[in-house]
Amino acid sequence: MQSIVDLHRYPLDHQESPEWLALVDRAKADLAREGMFNLDGFVRPDMLRDAVAELSPKFAAEAFTHKRRHNIYFRKTIEGLAPDHPALREVETINRTLCADQVGGAIKALYEWPAFAAFLAATMDKPALYPMVDPLAAHNVMCYQAGEGLNWHFDRSEFTVTLLLQAPDAGGDFEYRSDLRTDDDPNYDGVARLLNGADPELRRLSLSAGTLNVFRGKNTAHRVTPVQGGKDRIIAVLTYYERPGARFTAEEQIGFYGRAA
Ligand SMILES: O=C(O)CCC(=O)C(=O)O
Ligand SMILES: [Fe+2]
């Protein structure tokens, strides 16, 4: 794992050591304050270079191109919400996805490394976190070319873990609005305000390659703005659940990836 993660800076292999505990505390404080934490330089430049070299041809040959209109919920209808409510305004998303069964190497190794899941669980105050067993959804790598982006949405899982493999020259920013809703209050009017471009609490983050980003995606609305220029934005998305064995239904797999497995 030393050749993948910078373990000198981020000693995930020394669980419960003072340095590990300090890192967990810092991540927890950031999560409490901002709904996210970032560990820059988390993975080594060689790993980034190899992963990009390995995955780039696969994006050209076999990625699922995801182009569709959707609302922020990724659901056709929301119970209790009129179909013409502005919170259901549709937006367009275009990007390319490689699924877990198409991504191996260092990303799979990191995803399945128990010390990584243990560290993440500690930052989120969970007893444990487990990788999904879903052959498609477990870990994905997404590629955004010029003009492509991922539009406004809430995630299904409480937290989302990403690792930027290659940053674009311009655009491709991560925009987010922390705690736009809660599990008890859907705040439809606040959602409508955000979609109308009128939410003053919108924040923007420009990630650098190698950064691990963890954010509360379930109630934080977020999007990736369109990439500009010839360098693609390539990012791994690692999904963990509090129970072992999580997987999508065949219908969800087809909705997200265009195929079932
Ligand atoms: O590409 C990113 O930075 C965010 C990805 C994301 O929001 C998602 O996969 O749900
Ligand atoms: Fe997301």
UniProtKB/TrEMBL annotation:
Keyword Metal-binding in annotation: yes
Protein name from the UniProt record: 2OG-Fe(II) oxygenase
Stretches assigned to the Fe2OG dioxygenase domain: 134-244
Pfam families given in the database record: HalD
UniProt similarity note: Belongs to the iron/ascorbate-dependent oxidoreductase family.
UniProt superkingdom: Bacteria
Keyword Isomerase: no
Gene3D superfamilies listed in its UniProt record: q2cbj1_9rhob like domain
InterPro entries according to UniProt: BesD/HalB-like, Oxoglu/Fe-dep_dioxygenase_dom
Keyword terms of this UniProt record: Iron, Metal-binding, Oxidoreductase
Gene source species: Albidovulum marisflavi
